[in-house]
Amino acid sequence: MSGEVGGEACGIHRFVVFGDICGSGTLDLAEKKHQRAAMYAAFDDAYSSVGVEPGTFHQEDRGDGILVALRPDVPPTLMVGRWIDTLYESLRAHNQGRVRPLRLRIGMNAGLVTQDRHGLVGRAVDLAARLCDSPPAKRIMNETPEIDLVVVVSDWLYGNVVADGGRYVEPDHYRSARIRSKETDEAAWFHVPRRPAPPLIGRDGELPPEGEPAPEGEPAAAGEPAAAGERPPAGAARTGVGPSRGDGPTPRPVGGNREYHVGGDLLDIHGNTIHGGFTGIRKGSTKGAGDSVTDPDPRPGSGPRSGSGAGASSGTASGAGEPE
User: Fold this and answer.
1) CA distance 127 to 181
2) CA 276 → CA 248, 293, 310, distances in Å?
């Protein structure tokens, strides 16, 4: 299990977990000891749930965290499924009624790892640590205090294990964001147990505006549907054509006359609804080259009116009702 053959480091493919307690720097010594004990107990519960016995894996203490490398024969699907679920349930039970709950960030990866007398070495270990300490993971925990656990998996692990699904595995509840830290610049996948999506919006893991949840399936920009859970980028232009393009309901009419100006024949106007009775349609009126529709009685209960076809703009129709 050391990843050495004949004294030469060669690496063994192992599943790596890096865990960290959030906000440990703000705790006094007694609370640090208490949360460390609770973290180890939660990890032990999670190991037991997937049949990983004590003494069959490498585990290093990191002060306010843990670094783990499992045996190659541990099925990774168990780690991204039941292991995460049990860890979450253990945290939930421990935190019930506590003023200072135990909150964890977890980085998960798999790859070649070697081990010397000082500990674990390998790119897989480095990346697991970067995932755990990534800015998006820290923002999630800093700005959404009701979340007690965030799990970040590498792009390789998501594509080769999580995406295939399995018991307790929820690939559709992960969201991708870019990790840029030190020498690392690559995609990672974020998951908050019991949530349909973590509060991320965009490739760099920005959070939605304060007080606003990340919506499911809202367009990222005009003509470009976004991935579920993402918001449009700041400053994106709205389409402004009503419910047919997802901009919300047509504005409710208010008292007084209302005039609608159309720059051209009223033939193919999508997503517009004209409320109330109207007296007619005039082409080439004094308003200019465009057409206009006058609505003298814009009452909400009068029902939608619409005009279409060439005849709708070729003359003037009088009286409340449909234009000729």
Assistant:
1) 10
2) 20, 11, 22
The residue among 79, 80, 64 whose CA lies nearest residue 31 is 64
User: Burial, 256: exposed, middle or buried (Cβ in 10 Å; 0-12, 13-18, 19+)?
Assistant: exposed
Encode pLDDT of 49-105 as tens digits. 999 999 899 999 988 899 999 999 999 999 999 999 999 999 999 999 999 999 999
Q: What are phi and psi of 297, to 5 degrees?
A: -135, 70
What are 100-111's pLDDT values in tens digits? 999 999 999 999
Chain center to CA of 148: 16
Distance CA 299, CA 317 (A): 20
Could you say which DSSP state residue 296 is in?
S
Q: Are strands 104-116 and 58-61 parallel, antiparallel or unpaired?
A: unpaired
Cα 54 to Cα 2, 58, 258, 321, distances in angstroms = 18, 9, 77, 81
What does the buried/exposed string (b/e) look like for 22-44 if buried means 16 or more CB atoms within 10 Å of the residue's CB? bebeebeeeebebbbebbeebbe
DSSP characters over 120-147: EESHHHHHHHHHHT-HHHHHHHHH-TT-
pLDDT tens-digit map of 11-41: 899 999 999 999 888 888 999 999 999 999 9
Written as one letter, the residue type at 147 is I
- For the full predicted model, state whether its pTM sits above 0.90: no
Nearest CA among 14, 2, 25 for reference residue 127: 14
Q: Which two tokens stand for residue 149?
A: 């656990």
